[in-house]
Write a structure and sequence with these properties.
By secondary structure, the protein is mainly α. The chain is built from 15 helices and three strands. Helix 3 crosses helix 10, helix 3 runs antiparallel to helix 11 and helix 8 crosses helix 13. Belongs to the inorganic phosphate transporter (PiT) (TC 2.A.20) family.
């Protein structure tokens, strides 16, 4: 009974996580008009699932035993009903935010659920640990992302303006005929024909009208879009690689299924959540924070990827959700197209994540303890 209930709640949490998080990496693709919602969602699903599958081969390294982050004692962490309440509280909060179209952090929902369940069980909580796991990331992640996005996009824009780069330019790699003149003492000069390869930037129409010696013509807009797709896929892959083991770790107390099977189960539920319930968060991330161009979308994704990777290397507590939203908002501020009212609403949803998850988890734990008699 208790093990089955834990499986159901963890699957629910994984589904909620996929619904709220899967599209965040590709939001700039959809928002910039680079591709359609369906294509962006398919790319997000494939790359996130690829990251989850990669976790199979790194499971022993990535799957860290679920801890109370200094909030809950080890005795509670070893309790299946307690973990069930934490998973249920976090899942309920994330799915509610998803239904309302707000992108929130699943990690912060888990922290809130831990807080609520621990307070109900012990009556105390370590506020210093709460500050390190919730308050610091909440303040740090979006602020750093906004600043970095402004720097990245401003740098790209200055380069574009100085070089007069626009969407009608292409890179042309071509063979150019050359004539070499050789002279030897006592002999008449000789002419030798040859070819040199040259790389130039020109208008697309000029590239298309050149002779057959053109080896490769790269449309700059297509090149940007390709890099944009790659960066979006990289963000989704990294999220799948990191989040899948974290959620699967909640199942470590159960003897059913081997480690790899638990990861596959979580990965499939995350993919299902993204495919079936990502639309509202996708609209918020793609269209309601700011309007973006192809280049702006690439800048936002590069900012997200760089910050998440470097923060992970340095051990800084940043949230991928807060970074991706902050990057989009920073681009919007630079281009003077940011929707400040929507950003205020999103910030409010972030602030409410912890108390909402705490109340939900405490309620579930109380029900398990009082009525089911299994806590």
């Amino acid at each position: 009974m208790t093990i089955a209930l834990l499986f159901v709640t963890v699957c629910f949490l994984a589904y909620s996580n996929g619904a709220n998080d899967n599209f965040k990496g590709v939001a700039s693709l959809f928002g910039s008009g680079t591709t359609s919602y369906r294509v962006a969602l398919a790319w997000a699903t494939v790359t996130t699932l690829a990251g989850s599958i990669c976790a199979l081969f790194l499971a022993e390294t990535l799957l860290v035993k679920f801890s109370g982050k200094g909030l809950a004692p080890d005795s509670l962490i070893q309790s299946i009903p307690f973990i069930t309440a934490v998973a249920a509280g976090a899942g309920m909060t994330v799915i509610l935010a998803t239904r309302l179209g707000f992108p929130i952090s699943t990690t912060h929902a888990l922290v809130g659920a831990l807080t609520g369940s621990t307070l109900l069980a012990t009556g105390t909580i370590k506020f210093s640990a709460l500050g390190a796991s919730f308050v610091l990331p909440l303040l740090l992640s979006p602020l750093v992302a906004v600043v970095l996005a402004i720097v990245v996009y401003s740098g790209f824009r200055q380069i574009r303006q100085r070089k007069a780069i626009n969407n009608l330019l292409c890179l042309c790699l071509e063979n150019e005929p050359t004539i070499a003149v050789s002279t030897f003492i006592g002999q008449s000069g000789a002419l030798a024909a040859g070819q040199n390869r040259s790389l130039s930037i020109d208008n697309r129409s000029a590239c298309e009208s050149r002779y057959a010696g053109v080896i490769l013509g790269i449309d700059l807009r297509r090149a940007i879009d390709a890099l944009h797709f790659f960066s979006a896929g990289a963000v989704c892959f990294a999220r799948g690689l990191n989040d899948t083991p974290k959620i699967a770790a909640l199942l470590l107390l159960t003897p059913a299924l081997v480690l790899q099977e638990k990861i596959i189960l979580v990965a499939l539920m995350m993919a299902a959540g993204g495919l079936l319930n990502a639309r509202r968060v996708a609209e918020t991330m793609s269209h309601k924070i700011t309007t973006i161009s192809h280049g702006q979308g690439l800048s936002a994704n590069l900012t997200t990827a760089m910050l998440v990777i470097f923060a992970s290397k340095l051990g800084l507590p940043v949230s991928t959700t807060h970074v991706s939203v902050g990057a989009l908002f920073g681009i919007g501020l630079t281009a003077q197209q940011a929707n400040k009212n929507m950003m205020v609403s999103i910030l409010l949803s972030w602030l409410l994540t912890l108390p909402c998850a705490a109340l939900c988890a405490a309620g579930v734990y109380a029900i398990l303890n009082t009525y089911a008699g299994i806590a």
